[in-house]
Fold each of these.
Amino acid sequence: MELSVSFFAARPHSCVLPVVPARPDLKLRRRPLTLRRRSAIRAQVSDPSRCRETDDDGFVLEDVPHLTNFIPDLPSYPNPLHKSQAYAIVKQTFVSPEDVVAEKIVVRKDSPRGVHFRRAGPREKVYFKSEEVRACVVTCGGLCPGINTVIREIVCGLNYMYGVDDILGIEGGYRGFYSKNTSQLTPKVVNDIHKRGGTFLRTSRGGHDTQKIVDNIQDRGINQVYIIGGDGTQKGAALIYQEVEKRGLQVAVAGIPKTIDNDIAVIDKSFGFDTAVEEAQRAINAAHVEVESVENGVGVVKLMGRYSGFIAMFATLASRDVDCCLIPESPFYLEGKGGLFEFVEQRLKENGHVVIVLAEGAGQEYVAQSMHTVDGRDASGNRLLLDVGLWLSQQIKDHFTKVQKMAINMKYIDPTYMIRAIPSNASDNIYCTLLAQSAVHGAMAGYTGFTVGPVNSRHAYIPISVSISFPALP
Ligand SMILES: Nc1ncnc2c1ncn2[C@@H]1O[C@H](COP(=O)(O)OP(=O)(O)O)[C@@H](O)[C@H]1O
Ligand SMILES: O=P(O)(O)OC[C@H]1O[C@](O)(COP(=O)(O)O)[C@@H](O)[C@@H]1O
Ligand SMILES: [Mg+2]
């Protein structure tokens, strides 16, 4: 998902601080193209999970690794979907190996054709016999609506489409590989889990130990690993894939990107994001109702987004009740001309109330300064954020009572965990199902070291290393 707005007004007549959450990472990967057509090269970029082919018309294929890259004699088999009744009526069941998805759909007539990814979906040939598959599913990192749907559909997809019945649930994130027992997942066990929030398999931060995890994969005879998680999880998945390749194991590693923050590169958006934006409306609406019912009402709503303001900005755009949106990508200041205090005062004079939405990662430097706190980290190494919502509410209150001598009615709402903990809505359920099925088709077809996701609305296989190329986090 790319935001191209450089300045936006949340509702008519309101001045909103600039918003420039560009994703510059996408631009860096194109190189000058001098190769002749038909002399496509397979280039290994910095890490082995990344192979690109380049043609002289500027066609670039960001390919995903295949098990046959390091196990050349691996036998293949006809896809069992050949015999599936459900697919019998479909004109074209299988995706052609030539099908690719363009990263950019808006291009100039004479510009190079640009970066492409393999189209996701079932292939004619598979590289696993169904009865020999032993798959596992793990969920890591923070919660997000839809995780249970993805788990359910991996299990049901493997079972119903490919006849796989040996699927293990890894409990409690990466550390579950080596410190917990596994559970057996069947369509019956996961039948109803999509109706619940959270993760049926439980999750954790920290605890990624590549050697121990791959030892465990090997010891348990697992040959397909489905890893549901955010940017940190996918970095861990890339290391697992590399180790599997180093050991020459026939193990397909598939990542399914999960993050409510939407900070995964290339894909249109992450699952659960729509649900989160929808749920955020309820908090914004409550703030609006509260502040318009009192004199000089100031509503502050804090939404999730560690380093990206996607939820805050989309909830703002959808709501139309928000006067100002603050996000980490765009610095703001409080005092003086053009500052937030001046803007709040102006809106109170004009309209009698004001609603501010802010992403939790915004203004962290100010909060740290005023609280004199040390930099804390969670078990995964993510910076622990300070409560910018509480801090901002206090700053506004102090400014108006002490400096402006003006009484205001402050209503601060922090719905963050409530938003993250709900089940996914209808459109996210469909999206999660497609992601899970794409991952299953990819792993059965022998692809590995890949993540799945929609690129310009078409599901594609993306090298894990590319999906984690979102700008480095502080
Ligand atoms: N750079 C990394 N290399 C290997 N594993 C990582 C890395 N960053 C995070 N992880 C692991 O991924 C898991 C989830 O990471 P975290 O950042 O908490 O959540 P998310 O994946 O949602 O971003 C944790 O178990 C953590 O140890
Ligand atoms: O669950 P925790 O450890 O309190 O972490 C909260 C953080 O998790 C998130 O919801 C999502 O982060 P991840 O996707 O990286 O797991 C952030 O928006 C938020 O800052
Ligand atoms: Mg993360």
Amino acid sequence: MSKYDHLIDQEMVNGHWSWDSDRALLYAVGVGAGLDDPLEELQFTTENTPGLPQQVIPSFATIMGLQSDWMELLGWQKVGLSPVGMVHGEQSVTLARPLPVSGTAHLSTILRQVYDKGSGALVVQETRITLADTNEYLGSTCSGIFAQGKGNFGGPRGPSGATGWDQPSRAPDVKITLPVGLNQSLVYRLSGDRHPHGTEPTRARADGFEKPILYGLGTYGFACRALLRGLCEGDVTRFGHMAGRFSKPVYPGDRLDTVIWRTEEGAVFQMIANGERVVLDRGVFRFRE
Ligand SMILES: C/C=C/C(=O)SCCNC(=O)CCNC(=O)[C@H](O)C(C)(C)COP(=O)(O)OP(=O)(O)OC[C@H]1O[C@@H](n2cnc3c(N)ncnc32)[C@H](O)[C@@H]1OP(=O)(O)O
């Protein structure tokens, strides 16, 4: 029996969350839409382009998964918004249908596991999203938060990171290059992810970064745009599932190459910053069935 076992499968959020068209537009700009080409992604960045109805970038669902205050449940003392050294480790989003441009969702967030990774604890939580008025299932998000320094508590190690994903030996089938703006974190944070390590040098260094970062979920949004562009011709109805592991930080001003290998169900991918470091690894994409 390890110290968090009694909390596993506990529901941490059971409530409503509303968004409107402006919030989805702001999120799109926050994850860089329009930065490399202001005309390329008008379905995400405008609501009034003739013949191009607004669509919501599927990774917007991750913002809905942020509504839980699970750190108190675990008894972790926060400095600002989180314990020092806590970083986003993994993320997935699965959608049964495109997200509406506006709406109210019912969110249910469950603590799935706290793995003991030695150098840290990996906290896995899953959020189920339904439309509040009709109860229609929209999809789910799953996040793994890596709290450095909180490992070695005698808990389960969990699945090994060394298995289950292989980089194909052939050259990538598709490569999408996207720039990160120097003010990217300042825009992205307005979507509701306001951790100071995206803006404050002192906190960024305390959490193990060189300087303020682009938020992990911001990076995830860039990857989602790259996959939509490279595999779906920008059409969100084709999005089914996307997962990846944050392996190195992304900084404002970086250039992000998403390298994509097609598979039977969709693709596997990696994101590489400035041609030198893999920042999102073990990426998996699936088309909607
Ligand atoms: C609130 C935060 C918001 C943010 O947005 S932060 C910004 C986005 N996130 C990042 O930039 C994080 C980048 N990644 C890292 O810095 C490192 O990566 C980690 C600190 C997360 C881990 O590094 P290390 O302590 O050196 O771990 P190891 O020695 O490589 O592996 C130890 C075990 O941990 C698993 N692991 C490693 N990285 C991750 C990860 N990113 N997510 C989940 N698990 C991870 C491995 O597999 C292994 O476990 P096994 O031996 O059982 O395989």
Amino acid sequence: MIKLFNSLTNKKEPFVPIEEGKVKMYCCGPTVYNYIHIGNARPPIVYDMVRRYLTYRGYDVTFVSNFTDVDDKIIRAANELGEEVAAVAERFIKAYYADTCALNVKEADLHPRVTETMDDIIAFIADLEKKGFAYEAGGDVYFRTRKFNGYGKLSGQALDDLQSGARIEVDERKEDPLDFVLWKAAKPNEISWSSPWGEGRPGWHIECSAMIKKSLGDTIDIHAGGKDLTFPHHENEIAQSEALTGKKLANYWMHNGFVNINNEKMSKSLGNFVLAHDIIQQYSPEVVRFFMLTAHYRTPINFSDELLKGAEAGLERLKNTVANLQHRLAETADMGAEEEWLEKIAGAKQRFIEEMDDDFNSANAISVLFDLAKEANIYMSEAQTSKKVLNAFLELFAEFGEVLGVSFTQQEEELLDAEIEALIEERNVARKERNFARADEIRDLLKEKNIVLEDTPQGVRWKRGS
Ligand SMILES: Nc1ncnc2c1ncn2[C@@H]1O[C@H](COP(=O)(O)OP(=O)(O)OP(=O)(O)O)[C@@H](O)[C@H]1O
Ligand SMILES: [Zn+2]
């Protein structure tokens, strides 16, 4: 049985879905105004692993993750670049897909966008207002936090501690400093939507509440996101949704730890970040993903060249074992002692499942993989081997690889479509910024990989050369 650490109760709990065999899962997605750094890539990678494992264990998973495609940061970026908000958002949504696809993150079943969910967001706020949980003030709408019983239950904070906390801004339009914004009145010349409270746009927290309700219903099984989202974002999502429906928003809350660099959280505001699309040029995307999964998702992971090189070497060892198994298979007849080895392989599978059942411990599951490789190497040193055993080893590597989203078979060094598109996008940006040196460098890199670019009036086209 799968157990997972529920941030709501601070305990590891057996996973019991609302509907047998089905999982409704939501993960807060990115605000699309720049490229993702490797810290931002951790939530998509680890929750993709969780989704894959739940699927492996027989659940039918519906996975939803949003795009925040209008917000202060995007508006600021658009103003700086002299572009439309929609153009900036579109570009970075493409870049997000390109990076996460290279990292072998499966697309969500649904990727709702704020700008496409506006009617539902407005209806959600209007219903909160009707119930007395929201009030209008000068074109803004706020949530009446103290009216919601249970505010603070996720982050474990009492209302009065929050009140004195420095993170709450004081704004005289609010009835109470704890109240937070649901709808923001538009500033002059700012992108806006019509609403019962005038022209404006939604606050950040309300989007997720409205999108979850629309796409998955009132109560979902798992709500996931980075640890920094616990407060205020997730606390506010709970308040909005539960005030409206009277039902629990999510039965299980999962929060991933940070990617640190020199023991400090990697973040855009600190400027200590490494972009995902840069690091996957230096190491393969597979190595980056494997590296990420060598730590348990809740523990902080330090980002360093040394650790990445370690992950690269480890992955190489596993791939070599698999290549040797394949090679051996081609020249083996069916003979040798089978039962003992088949039992060993079945035992490894059992241990892998036990580790993953225990709060998705991919770190320990990967050490089971290394043990499996060790066993495989011992087996191959025997004089006589059997096709059946070699196949059983290979099947298990393939099975684990599918769960982790990392392939252990050797591949030609070929660029994936998504990586090519990411590079072309980066070249477009470089050209726009008149950074022609970088633009040429990218053209050369693509040429080296036999990708031919063609500038057309409709934009850049590409094809693989012969
Ligand atoms: N270092 C990190 N490790 C793991 N997850 C992270 C890290 N930084 C951000 N995230 C996650 O990435 C997503 C986007 O976060 P956000 O845009 O706040 O990134 P950021 O770099 O921290 O930006 P800022 O410094 O502007 O807050 C969130 O889900 C957040 O939890
Ligand atoms: Zn959210």
Amino acid sequence: MAQVLTLCRSVLHWSPLWVRSMCSLEEQARAIFAAAVEGVQPDSVVRRALQRRGDELVVAGHSFKLHHNLHLVGFGKAVLGMAAEAERIVGDHLVQGIVSVPHGIQETLQRHRKLNMLLDPSSKIKVMEGAKHNLPDTDAQRSAESIRELASSLTDGDLLLVLISGGGSALLPAPVPPITLQEKQEVTRCLAAAGATIQELNTVRRALSLLKGGGLSRCAYPAQVVGLILSDIIGDPVDLIASGPTVWSETSLEEVWAILYRYNLYATLPLSVKELLNQTGSQQRSKLKDQPQQDNILNAVIGSNAIALECASRKAQELGLRPVILSPGVCGNVQAVAQLYGLLSRFACSPGKEPPELRDQILKLGQEVGVESSELCRTMKHLEEGRQESWHATCLLAGGEPTVQLLGKGKGGRNQELALRVGLELSRAEERSTTVFLSGGTDGQDGPTEAAGAVSDRNIETEAQSQGLDIDVFLCNNDSFTFFSSLSKGQKLLLPGLTGTNVMDVHLMILPPPPSAV
Ligand SMILES: Nc1ncnc2c1ncn2[C@@H]1O[C@H](COP(=O)(O)OP(=O)(O)OP(=O)(O)O)[C@@H](O)[C@H]1O
Ligand SMILES: O=C(O)[C@H](O)CO
């Protein structure tokens, strides 16, 4: 496949349409997804963010003097690779480091031969694994305690590099005493089960933790803190990613109570939690008297869904497609998201003028799935221009994290379910478009399955029927992985393996021109 793509790349600059078609739209879609993931690999984002100028470290335009004063901590699913790269860049000034990473990750990375994401045997960074199944456990609590001790031992003149990525909340549990780990875990479990968003969940976590919500930088004060953040939340809110341990945030207790009441959790709250949250404002504030000055903290988002989409866009252009980025903030119900993509394909493929109600339908659905009207208007303008000019295929790019309402007992993930639903939209549309859709999780794992996502087009329904597969039955049972594994021997699955990064999901739709424009 790599060879095919290299060939495609070299001929695309001058090629007529028939040469372009040698590289199938599906192959192009897969290559563009791979480029999106490649652009946010932990080592490449750290390499882009940390510049060395002799004994100076430059981050986001700020310069820091290095004199064997550098300490490093990290927590999250992608920080092992981030730490390995950071040590390659500033290891000569590194005094010590601790990273809290998911249980079994070193073994998994070894197995996937991701050796650049592993630390050197002579590394000064201690790796602590914990949080089995993404749940805070006693191992993760021990890691959090070690990280807290390291940060608290720092003095003026020290520099603490904090590597942060998704999964960091579970890997840095430090409940405010007398709240126990089990009590805090129960509160978050109930919130998640009741359907709380990650924003709500982390707002509550911050209020119950010693290290979240800026607690870690408070411990490190007066040392300089530099947080490098790989974002896994829509909009890149630094105070919420991994619950913001380096971001000073004064969570209002009213806000926390409002969330707990919203999900009817008051009655089941442990007494210790109720007591902490009932403290008066002045008691809360006295805990914070050592809060560091903002000048001592620099936080930089070094990897995000938007960056992955930019990289995908460059790849699409290289392949001779016309890239259009819709939005990095797609959320909401996967059914509505699929309908939106179906309508956008219809819009792009209508020969001549589109039906008048189509634009309104698109704008209405956009509101439901976190896409702003301005983003949709801009996208439709591009698609419209494409329809008028004689254009090559457009690659529509978007990202985010839609949700699936789990009603069945099947095996699947939101990306595979989205791909299946979009395929169905395309199959059942009046226009006979050759649109190809791909949805994939940038971490390489979609729900509890071995796949990252899947690819689909309008042929999916007839292919399924001819192979005795009833799509509606699979969808009702949330069984998208079983469906794609059975369809054409699993050829439509996206199987990159564990990628070592995570900036949510990437959606891409390759829209060939309508027949009249070719
Ligand atoms: N059978 C299924 N069909 C569709 N979606 C499913 C199914 N089972 C689980 N999911 C969805 O998969 C998601 C969890 O998967 P995953 O572990 O990839 O989550 P994530 O949000 O990407 O986690 P992280 O951000 O920590 O990597 C949940 O949103 C859940 O609703
Ligand atoms: O760790 C967490 O809190 C989630 O991954 C969101 O950042």
